[in-house]
Amino acid sequence: YHRLHAKETRLSQFNQTEIKAMLRSYTKVLFVRDPFHRLIATFLQGMGISPSFSSFVQEVLDSGVHNSSVAWKPLVSLCRPCLIQYDYVVRFGFLRQELGHLLHRAGLSVGSLIPELTDSQVQWTYRWLSEQMFSELSAQQKKQLSHFYRWDLAAFPFSGSFLSD
Under 8 Å CB-to-CB from 75, ≥6 apart: which residues? Predict the structure, then answer.
């Protein structure tokens, strides 16, 4: 596409006709992750200045959806799954299985391109971390987080998410 190679061109910079033509010409893949797991990873990476997970969550909630960082902004507001028909949605925690299928469908060699991932260990670790960090939050924070990520929880199958309990 003629403006495709421009650095950091956003889809919103094109007109509707160009957007439709581009989207038809690509295989669209969306990678999603449980929003609570995204918060944990962001906190552990030190992206917040808060000393505790609870105070970090309060910062996130206080920032609001529109002023939030991309690191914890709801996925629905970033990826527009209601406007863009994605060909594949790959969920974190099932990467090895889903990436293998995706690469096979794309006609690529599966074995050499998939890193060694142990999905069950990743799921177990995040389950344990979620239990620990969720217990730090007040009932009000839990309710507010569920509301903050309500559209992500409705759009994607995050079964077992602490935010949907």
Answer: 32, 33, 35, 81, 152, 155, 156
Query: Which residue shows structure tokens 């507010």?
Result: 144
Cα–Cα dist 164/59, whole Å: 21
Q: How far apart are the first and last CA of the chain?
A: 44
Q: Is 60 left (phi over 0), alpha (psi -120 to 50) or beta?
A: alpha
Longest dimension (CA), the chain: 52
For the stretch 13-53, pLDDT in tens is 888 888 888 888 888 888 888 999 899 989 988 876 789 99
pTM: 0.75
**Are 156 and 75 in contact, with CB atoms under 8 Å apart?**
yes
User: What beta strand segments (E) does 17-128 contain?
Assistant: 29-32, 88-91
Q: Are 68 and 12 in contact (CB under 8 A)?
A: no
Name the residue among 164, 142, 143 with its Cα closest to residue 153.
164
